[in-house]
Amino acid sequence: MTTYVVGLVIIGGLTSAGVYLLLERHLTRMLLGLLLISNAINLLLLAAGGPTGNPPVYGRTSGDQTATADPLAQGLILTAIVITMGVAAFVLALTYRSYRLNTMEEVTNDPEDARVSQMTGTEVGEEIEGRLEPDPAIDTDLPDELDALPGHQGSR
């Protein structure tokens, strides 16, 4: 089996450009990087699928081919294309929603994450312990208006 270097270089170029775009902070560039990586993987599956040959249908021949082509690689590529389009639609919807809420598409650092990362371990533990203790004015075992089920007479 011969390996074509040009195809592998194209796959490597697509993968490296996709990784570079995925590391950007803009959502549309992340989407383009995701699409480039998925196309590189599809080309890699096609290259790894083996040589061309006869169609995988009994009794069919294609020119002077002696071997039968493997249909698994093409089936995997079709499945990967469908999955990629679903993920791309989801990321595009996230991008649109983020732009509508923030009027920008750049992903920034979360201020709450920055605050927690600046805290020491004991400060985080104290903050969590303070949250775990229930407030007796709010948390009671007595039935509330929202606890009653429709048709249930309870303690009225």
Structure report:
This protein is mainly alpha-helical and 156 residues long. It has a domain at 1-52 and 70-125: Helix Hairpins (Orthogonal Bundle). Helices cover 58% and strands 0% of the residues. It contains 5 helices and no strands. The chain has helices at 5-22, 27-48, 72-102, 111-118, 121-132. Helix 1 packs antiparallel against helix 2 (27-48) and helix 2 packs antiparallel against helix 3 (72-102). The chain is elongated. It is a multi-pass membrane protein. It comes from Mycolicibacterium iranicum (Mycobacterium iranicum).
Largest sheet composition: none
Our count of helices gives: 5
According to DSSP, the number of beta strands is 0
Along the chain, the helix and strand elements come as HHHHH
Using the coordinates shown, work out and report the CATH topology of the domain at 1-52 and 70-125. Helix Hairpins
Indicate the mean pLDDT: 80
Principal-axis shape: elongated
- Low-pLDDT runs: none
Taking all Cα atoms into account, the compactness measure Rg is: 28 Å
Oligomer: single chain
The proportion of residues in beta strands is under 5%
- Which class do the helix and strand fractions yield? mainly alpha
What would CATH call the class of the domain at 1-52 and 70-125? Answer: Mainly Alpha
Second-tier CATH architecture of the domain at 1-52 and 70-125:
Orthogonal Bundle
The CA-CA distance between the termini, in Å, is 83 Å
Portion in helices: 55-70%
Membrane topology: Multi-pass membrane protein
InterPro entries: CPA3_antiporter_subunitC, NUOK/Mnh_C1-like
Transmembrane segments: 6-23, 30-52, 72-94
Main location: membrane
